[in-house]
């Protein structure tokens, strides 16, 4: 039976991040994707691609969840941009009613191209209602700085410190993504399971076509968990998957370029175009 996987997240109208990244990634992993849309992000080419986030009414989020949680249980759930405290509360209700081990919380606190941070009350609700139920959370450097309340993180030691603090919020595993912001030669992530640290390394690709990388990474972890991989294995697989997606990034328009979610499975086929 194909594994059912859900993303509770925002819609990225530009197609590279958010639920679009999640569904494309779920499909590449051979899982069956469901979506509960919490917000819609639009970009304005007349204002240098400035982002606007429009939240969906929490009652409509609840209706989507009710639809999705009918029938065979889900194998894994990912949360991304959550829009409102109401959406977080409804998601938490369904996680209580239908407990599952494979919850991945991608703590989307800001997206590239906007200085608008997720409201502090959303961060508080995510910490209280979602992180304690999660198998893993996947903050980038900025998000890890906010969740840990350590502020700017500039070294691997800082990332380890933040991972420990975030772990203490009740999540079973933490992976802090160093990415290009760490300013290292390599793309290094710090994985912490409450006992040991592991460093996941990959070549750092010099590209601007990397929109959607974070969502794609967390979606790949979610799909790999659904397929039965351990959380450590899922992170390794996701790292390779997103590295291929970044390496094969695509220019979308004059403002941005996306990772290509199909690259891991299909990169060679592009040569035939
Ligand atoms: O990359 C973070 C992100 C997450 N979710 C949605 C987004 C973005 C960035 O644009 O649009 C819906």
Task: Describe the protein.
37% of the residues lie in helices and 22% in strands. The protein is of the alpha/beta class and 273 residues long. The protein has one domain: 3-Layer(aba) Sandwich (UDP-N-acetylmuramoyl-L-alanine:D-glutamate ligase), CATH 3.40.1190.20. The strands form 3 sheets. It has a 6-stranded mixed beta sheet. A 3-stranded antiparallel beta sheet has the order 7-8-9, sandwiched between helices. Strands 10-11 form a two-stranded antiparallel ribbon. The chain is globular and about 45 Å long. The structure holds 3-hydroxy-5-(hydroxymethyl)-2-methylisonicotinaldehyde (PXL). 3-hydroxy-5-(hydroxymethyl)-2-methylisonicotinaldehyde is lined by residues 9-12, 17-18, 41, 80-81, 108, 111-112, 214-215.
SSE layout:
Blueprint: E1 4-12, H1 18-28, E2 32-44, E3 50-55, H2 58-68, E4 76-79, H3 85-97, E5 103-105, H4 120-130, E6 136-137, H5 141-148, H6 156-167, E7 174-177, E8 186-192, E9 197-203, H7 213-226, H8 231-247, E10 250-251, E11 257-258, H9 263-266
Helix pairs in contact: 1-7, 2-3, 3-4, 5-6, 7-8
Bound molecules: 3-hydroxy-5-(hydroxymethyl)-2-methylisonicotinaldehyde (PXL).
Residues 9-12, 17-18, 41, 80-81, 108, 111-112, 214-215 line the site of 3-hydroxy-5-(hydroxymethyl)-2-methylisonicotinaldehyde.
């Amino acid at each position: 039976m194909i594994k059912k996987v859900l993303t509770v997240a925002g819609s990225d109208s530009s197609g590279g991040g958010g639920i679009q990244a999640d569904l494309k990634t779920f499909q590449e992993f051979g899982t069956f994707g469901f979506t509960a849309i919490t917000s819609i992000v639009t970009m304005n080419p007349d204002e240098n691609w400035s982002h606007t986030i429009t939240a969906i009414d929490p009652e409509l989020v609840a209706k989507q969840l009710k639809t999705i949680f009918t029938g065979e249980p889900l194998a894994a759930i990912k949360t991304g941009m959550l829009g409102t405290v109401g959406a977080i509360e409804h998601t938490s209700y369904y996680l209580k009613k239908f407990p599952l081990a494979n919850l991945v919380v991608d703590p989307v606190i800001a997206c590239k191209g906007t200085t608008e941070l997720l409201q502090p009350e959303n961060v508080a609700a995510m910490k209280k209602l979602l992180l304690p139920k999660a198998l893993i959370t996947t903050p980038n450097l900025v998000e890890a700085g906010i969740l840990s309340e350590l502020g700017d993180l500039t070294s691997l030691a800082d990332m380890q410190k933040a991972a420990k603090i975030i772990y203490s919020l009740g999540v079973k595993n933490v992976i802090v993504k160093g990415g290009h912001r760490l300013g290292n030669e390599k793309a290094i992530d710090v994985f912490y399971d409450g006992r040991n640290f592991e460093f996941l390394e990959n070549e750092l690709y010099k590209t601007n076509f990397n929109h959607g990388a974070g969502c794609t990474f967390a979606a790949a972890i979610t799909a790999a968990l659904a397929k039965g991989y351990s959380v450590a294995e899922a992170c390794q697989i996701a790292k390779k998957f997103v590295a291929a997606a970044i390496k094969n990034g695509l220019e979308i328009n004059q403002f941005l370029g996306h990772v290509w979610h199909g690259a891991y499975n299909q990169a060679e086929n592009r040569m035939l175009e």
